[in-house]
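Newbie here. two chains, one complex. Structure please?
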Amino acid sequence: MELVEAIILSVLAASTPLLLAATGELVTERSGVLNLGVEGMMIVGAACGFAGAWLTGSIFVGALFGILAGTMMSLIFALMALGLAVNQVATGLALTILGVGLSGLVGAGFVGERITPAAHLSIPGLTDIPLVGRVLFGEDAFVYFSIALVVAVWWFLYRTRAGLILRACGDNHVSAHALGYPVLRIRTFAVMFGGACAGLAGAYLPLAYTPFFIPGMTAGRGWIALALVVFSSWRPGRLVVGAYLFGAVTILQLHAQGWGVGIPSQFMSALPYLATVIVLVLLSRARSGGSTAPAALGTVFVPDR
Amino acid sequence: MQAHQRMFDSTPEGLNSGESPLLRTIGLTKRYGDFLANDSIDIDIWPGQIHALLGENGAGKSTLVKAIYGLIQPSAGEIYWLGERIVLSGPSEARSRGIGMVFQHFSLFDNLTVAENVALGLDGRESFNDMSARLAQVSKTYGLPLDPRREVWQLSVGERQRIEIVRALMQDPKFLILDEPTAVLTPQESDQLFIVLERLKSEGRAILYISHKLEEVKRLCDTATILRGGRKVETCDPRRETAASLARMMVGGEIKEVKAAAGRTTTVPRLVVNDLSLAPGEAHGVRLAHISFELKGGEILGIAGVAGNGQDELFAALSGERLSKDPGTVVIEGIAAGHLSITQRRKLGAAFVPEERLGHGTAPRMKLSENALLTGHAASGMVHRGFIDTAATLKTVDRATETFDVRKAKRDPEAASLSGGNLQKFIVGREILRNPAVLVVSQPTWGVDAGAAAVIRQALLDLATAGAAVLVTSQDLDELAEIADRIAVMFHGRLSAPLAASEATREKLGLLMGGSMLEPKEAAHAVGA
């Protein structure tokens, strides 16, 4: 029982950064922009988040630093890909390379330092319930926030006019422009939201997951988050399922090694990507008509004035 | 002031149903770099009138209506709305003042529902439920049925246009702009649209109607303004003009008449399609079902139909861009070719001209000589032992230039630098100079000016006279009537039995384009023809 509870807790912890980053990227992609720089924005968020928390002693300030750093990174992307209409794939990849370098620079002075990690919720009585107590009532604030965020994003996309306009930009930017919507401004906000989420996801790692910063600590989670958006076929509900599934695979991989199961760890690490490919194939076979991806995804838009 | 004076003179007398025009532009100019898309245009729009805006491609019609709808800012000139000078900040301001627009390339969102699409075209002051209720009411009032919950990609072109019109009408516009609304409609669907437009007119609304179809304009419109090269040429009463006189004003000269040679004889079957069926290749594609026809040398077969009914898929199957499992489905010059590649089919004597000029017919950033090589390498002696014979490729460019009057700035420019009409003449010329036994050509004069269109049609007729089999896909029924010997119609991936051109009336073709079947007797007759 103890072991099951421990595994569930570690799966939740491993899934939260994926869920946060993927939620941001989902909104970005729904507006028609493909930002492949998630990994770069995350790692800068991690370095700045740790720096903020170490300097002020406050996890909250650290999280804000992470969000701010991710947003700044995404603004570089927005300037290039939206303002100057540079190819989005190239810009995104460059952003990741930039982010990895920048985080090393920012974080260099903090390697080896420790902070007190984010506190976990504790409600006497509820948190002590065996098995489910700590899972439901004993998490840190990031976990609850990430779930609230997905619900809010779902509500925004499908229940508000602003969300409808955002989806419209992702479906057909020419039409959206013809109807008088400021496509580039809307996309800039979507990219900034994606950056903020990625920065927070990155900050989660040194603030809650491990209480210290090491260079490259995102370890490909940004790429998994990108795969996750495709896996979810751009729908928030499926994103939650996918995030916990991918998180579980990561944890399983660690435990499998511990138990001496004869599956190569490389195979387990590749599972999320393999799952994404399989889902893509299944989706394209299942649907006969409309496209699942935002139709304008990744295409450059220059309004004529 | 001379221009102003002319403006008042140019509105035909007795048509002014109001005291002052609803909308007036004075000296409206839009400049893109050195290029004047609109040069000092004056136009008056009166309530209760349908006003046609005519002109060839590139004459500046779209630029003008975009400026009136607030999509682009004019470089100079003034717009008056109800006598008051306005500067539109964007389409939403135009809409709130009572200007609505139905776009040529629909401004719809394929993966959103009808109701969501309509909501996006409104200003969002009412709740989604109130909007849906009003949508149902408007669509009922004007006889434009729509199912608000369906996603747009599932709908036909006619239904999509209905969304656009309903969306515009829900703003209760005083002035509605329609950009080539009938270009993609069957004749019957067009008639239904005209009923709606007449009704809007009787309600006192003004309509600006852009069209290429002059007969339609004569029938429907009270006033016509003709643009040429970005300038206003004339404002006239289209009912007092002939289609030919309107065309002359648009082109600025006589258009050469296309003539078929007398005594054209048909020879052996050169392109035969047997029961061709093909699953769609992409998400929104059409499934081809049991297509069969036989095309003899010396003959032109026209394929009519509303865009998106499988014409692109048929072209891909004939050209070899998509292969068929059964070789016998496509027979070129007596050889089963369904499984052969494009190059192999070219070697059999076939040539292909796709609809899309840039990106499909040519590589836009490559020179014309290189583009000549791309389709001519297999069978035109441009390659020796794997090396390109540059002189031979340039010779092809020169011959095409000379024979088909291709106008360009230098001997061998990039394909993208040519105008649409000139590039199309080059592409058709490139293929015809290879002396093909079979030519498959899709939308040969789409977006091409009238002069170039006449050259291309004449070239197709001459090729058939020389003994080749020519298959022409077109949405322009007048074009098919002009050059085709027989006309078949594509609908939902099926091809009707061909009708002899003399029997293929607009009504019959229209019914087929809308999916109705002809009487069995008539169809049997058509097969025999």
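Moderator note: Chain A has twelve helices and no strands. The two ends of chain A are 65 Å apart (CA to CA). Thread marked as resolved.
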